[in-house]
């Protein structure tokens, strides 16, 4: 700097700036740290994490996205990796750990290329080519399952749950598959699954074997009057989103009562109006009433006398589920209530379970909404079972909506994509070829991690798998289902099946976030000060000279 020229600072005091290689190294280190955090949870032999928050609440899980969401990540690059897991969860419901460890490995491989003097833009361009080619390879690799066969869908669920605390429990697998088959909608070429139609209700007590599928809905409500029956068989259900109460006027009004007879007449008229309301419910043929709003005490008395089991202040979400399960229409006025608007259920009963009173609406003939009641010894167990069910349902939805498109698991898919990417790289000219090869090498992290988590030698497994894939064994992967002889085998024959959509999204998300991080060469961060003051000339800090 020439003598006498003052340095010019463009950033206020408290800001920090990291540029060039330092910025890239910091970002890559943060991404690798996040990947290493969840790495040990991958696969059927993956370990669990115990997460303790600042008030002492405990979560025990090996679900990647749950672990990452619970961590208070501050580093901006690390937050981007966490976003990969969240996107994976929202899009397909499973494969979060796979996406994160691939992203971490892609950046680790990129760091080696950067050390060799290859510009980050070239690495990013090569990675972009590899992502696009990987998507084409996966489309060709995809195989079809029969989405109407329970045993085929069970393979998907078994693969998703085998590493969870459920341990691929056959009873839980059967519940999940039965639930998805009830709510799936197939209309010509359009196949649709709305997971909101499957309610998961958790109650501590009993064991996993006590979990069951309710062909209907459970609502956390008590009957409104003690004289009402606890059980109604051959239930005819009315759904009202209005209140069985005398409505108050919208304008201020006064009623002057000068004689006792006037008060009596006023109360008698209110009672008559409420009686007329309950008579309309009874006339429709309903023996169960579910009301989204309130039910007046007097109306409760008349409903109890009529033997109509009633519930009030049921949420709109539950009302919709009950409608789908029973075929009932949600009615806004009592004048619309008739026999055609009623829903049907084999039984509606009130039962105390785990210290709570619940209403069971079950044995519906053709329910389009169902409930999985999860039981377990502790709250931590039922929470982890719910996460396993959520992952499985996400996988099943992907397979059904993609008309049965799947690939084999156990790392076989990643190994085949890796092999074909190397063949693709040979056709490229320039330094992008090195980046595509690095991308191919990075995909092998899935196999290495599966082997490490199972206590196997990852190098031996990797060498065996590369040889198997060179011989044309497309679905050769790490078989960990055999406790006594884990090793390399054809995963499609072992029934280890995963949705094609899960793999495509994982590789796409991991590639895109790696490319974005590689393109960052400057990090400008605000300090902790809420009102930073401009820095005076002559100071040292993040600025241009």
Supply database-style keywords.
GroEL, seven-stranded mixed sheet, 3 domains, three-stranded antiparallel sheet, GROEL, domain 1, 545 residues, 21 strands, GROEL, domain 2, alpha+beta, disordered C terminus
What can you see in these coordinates?
- With 545 residues, the chain is an alpha+beta fold.
- It has 17 helices and 21 strands.
- It has helices spanning 20-39, 64-70, 76-91, 96-115, 120-141, 150-161, 170-183, 260-283, 297-305, 316-326, 379-401, 412-425, 432-443, 445-453, 458-470, 491-494, 500-518; strands at residues 16-19, 49-52, 58-61, 143-144, 185-187, 190-192, 198-204, 212-214, 217-219, 231-240, 288-291, 309-311, 330-331, 343-353, 356-362, 370-376, 405-408, 476-479, 487-490, 497-499, 522-525.
- The strands form seven sheets. Strands 9, 10, 11, 12, 13, 14 and 15 form a seven-stranded mixed sheet that branches. Strands 4-17-20 form a three-stranded antiparallel sheet.
- β18 (476-479) and β19 (487-490) form a beta hairpin.
- α5 (120-141) runs antiparallel to α17 (500-518) and α8 (260-283) packs across α9 (297-305).
- The protein is elongated, with a radius of gyration of 31 Å.
- The termini are close together.
- Residues 529-545 have low confidence and may be disordered.
């Amino acid at each position: 700097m020439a003598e006498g020229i003052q340095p010019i600072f463009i950033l206020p005091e408290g800001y920090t700036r990291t540029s060039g290689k330092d910025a890239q190294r910091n970002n890559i280190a943060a991404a690798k740290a996040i990947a290493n955090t969840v790495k040990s949870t991958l696969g059927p032999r993956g370990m669990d994490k115990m997460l303790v928050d600042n008030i002492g609440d405990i979560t025990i899980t090996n679900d990647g996205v749950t672990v990452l969401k619970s961590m208070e990540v501050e580093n901006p690059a690390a937050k981007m990796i966490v976003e990969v897991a969240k996107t994976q969860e929202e899009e397909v419901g499973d494969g979060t750990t796979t996406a994160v460890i691939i992203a971490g490995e892609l950046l680790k491989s990129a760091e080696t290329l950067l050390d060799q003097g290859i510009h980050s833009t070239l690495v990013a361009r090569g990675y972009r080519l590899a992502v696009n080619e990987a998507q084409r390879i996966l489309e060709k690799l995809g195989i079809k399952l029969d989405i109407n066969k329970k045993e085929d869908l069970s393979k998907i669920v078994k693969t998703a749950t085998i590493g969870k605390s459920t341990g691929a429990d056959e009873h839980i697998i059967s519940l999940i598959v039965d639930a998805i088959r009830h709510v799936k909608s197939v209309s010509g070429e359009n196949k649709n699954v709305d997971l909101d139609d499957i309610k998961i209700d958790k109650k501590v007590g009993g064991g996993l074997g006590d979990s069951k599928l309710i062909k209907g809905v459970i609502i956390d409500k008590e009957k409104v009057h003690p004289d009402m029956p606890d059980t109604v068989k051959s239930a005819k259900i009315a759904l009202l989103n209005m209140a069985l109460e005398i409505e108050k006027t919208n304008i201020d009004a006064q009623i002057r009562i000068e004689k006792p007879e006037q008060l009596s007449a006023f109360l008698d008229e209110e009672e008559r109006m409420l009686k007329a309301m309950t008579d309309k419910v009874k006339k429709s043929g309903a023996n169960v009433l579910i009301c989204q709003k309130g039910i007046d005490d007097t109306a409760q008395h008349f409903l109890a006398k009529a033997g109509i089991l009633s519930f009030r202040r049921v949420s709109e979400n539950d009302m919709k589920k009950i409608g789908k399960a029973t075929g009932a229409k949600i009615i806004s006025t009592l004048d619309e209530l008739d026999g055609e608007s009623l829903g049907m259920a084999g039984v509606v009963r009130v039962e105390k379970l785990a210290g709570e009173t619940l209403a069971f609406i079950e044995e519906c003939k053709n329910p389009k909404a169902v409930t999985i009641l999860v039981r377990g010894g502790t709250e931590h167990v039922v929470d982890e079972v719910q996460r396993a069910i959520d992952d499985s349902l996400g996988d099943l939805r992907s397979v059904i909506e993609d008309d049965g498109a799947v690939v084999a698991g156990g790392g076989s898919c990643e190994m085949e994509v890796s092999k074909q990417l190397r063949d693709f790289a040979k056709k490229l000219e320039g330094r992008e070829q090195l980046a595509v090869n690095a991308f191919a090498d990075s995909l092998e992290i899935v196999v290495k991690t599966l082997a490490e988590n199972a206590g196997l030698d990852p190098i031996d497994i990797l060498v065996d798998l590369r040889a198997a894939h060179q011989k044309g064994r497309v679905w050769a992967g790490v078989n960990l289902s055999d406790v006594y002889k884990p090793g390399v085998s054809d995963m499609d024959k072992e029934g280890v099946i995963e949705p094609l959509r899960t793999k495509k999204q994982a590789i796409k998300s991991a590639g895109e976030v790696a490319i974005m991080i590689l393109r960052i060469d400057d990090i400008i961060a605000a300090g902790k000060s809420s009102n930073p003051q401009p820095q005076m000339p002559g100071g040292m800090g993040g600025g241009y000279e």
